[in-house]
Amino acid sequence: MKKFRRRSARMNLMHYRVLVARYFRQIFSSLGTLLPLVLQAPVMLVIVWLVSRKDAFTLKSPDALTGANVTLFMLVIMSALMGILNSYREICKERDILSREVFGGLDITAYVLSKVTVLSVVGIVQCAVLFGGTLIFIDFAFPSPATGYVCCYAAMALTNISVMTVGLFISALLKKSESAILPVLFIIIVQVVFCDSLFSLEGAAGWVRYVTPSAWAIAVMSHECALNDWAPQIFQKPMFDLNPLIGLAVLAAIALAFMLLTILRLKRVYRQKD
How far apart are CA 81 and CA 239, in angstroms? Predict the structure, then answer.
């Protein structure tokens, strides 16, 4: 394969704009693509409505602590689930098309950035529907509402985006979408087990949570809901006391890291291809 040619920033920006427009057009022109994206958040919202304790955050009692913890867990895990489902097939399903376009001069960075942009917009809208919908039947009773709503929504959106970039990286590693099932299940299980919500994490497991998006998102939301103050004698999580900006910054860093890994992976693949 011929070596990558140096292209101007203007040309790369043009590639990015064309690709973003193409992917949005593909979403809205195909019912089979649009319908799952539209239905994901409402379906998950119904599940939250069915199983959540509506007065958990207003009672702020030890008895309500489990219900509040489970509600935040569900919101974060559902955000992560939507992110991985939206992205894990995006690159491997386009392998043939991508190869032809790279041969024709397509910029890999512009390609990955366009994917991240479109899927981020989709995830942001989905999380807005999910979080906004819960406000109809759950009063989170934030001690500081001005920051509570913003930080909780930002945590969900960044969880979606960070796990979405993990899905893109998986998609870049594989040639067929069918091969992604096992890695996707692994990522989902990691988000559930190491989120520092359902299980007590000690030893090596306690370190894994620091690289798990769902753990940081739950830490941000739990801090804004002040869960550590409800029953400190029986419930205390160190991450829940951290400044929420730290958690949001870590989520953004994870998203950036996996986006860069995806770019490097694809550049390596097409440089080595004969």
Answer: 22
Looking up tokens 């620091």 gives 210
C-alpha to C-alpha distance for 1 and 181, rounded to whole angstroms: 31
Interior angle at CA 90, CA 89 and CA 91, nearest 5: 100
CA torsion sign, 227 to 229 to 234 to 238?
A: positive
Distance of alpha carbon 103 from alpha carbon 61, whole angstroms: 62
Distances (CA, A) of 238 to 89, 99, 204, 209: 36, 47, 16, 12
Nearest CA to 50 out of 36, 65, 70, 30 is that of 70
Longest dimension (CA), the chain: 65
Query: For 32, which DSSP code?
Result: H
Question: pTM value?
Answer: 0.91
Q: Convert the pLDDT of each residue in 74-125 to its tens digit.
A: 999 999 999 999 999 899 888 888 888 888 888 999 999 999 999 999 999 9
Place of tokens 């207003």: 58
How far apart are the C-alpha atoms of 117 and 26, rounded to whole Å? 14
Are the C-beta atoms of 82 and 126 separated by less than 8 Å? Answer: yes
Under 8 Å between Cβ of 226 and 176: no
Q: What band does 152 get if pLDDT is binned at 50, 70 and 90?
A: very high
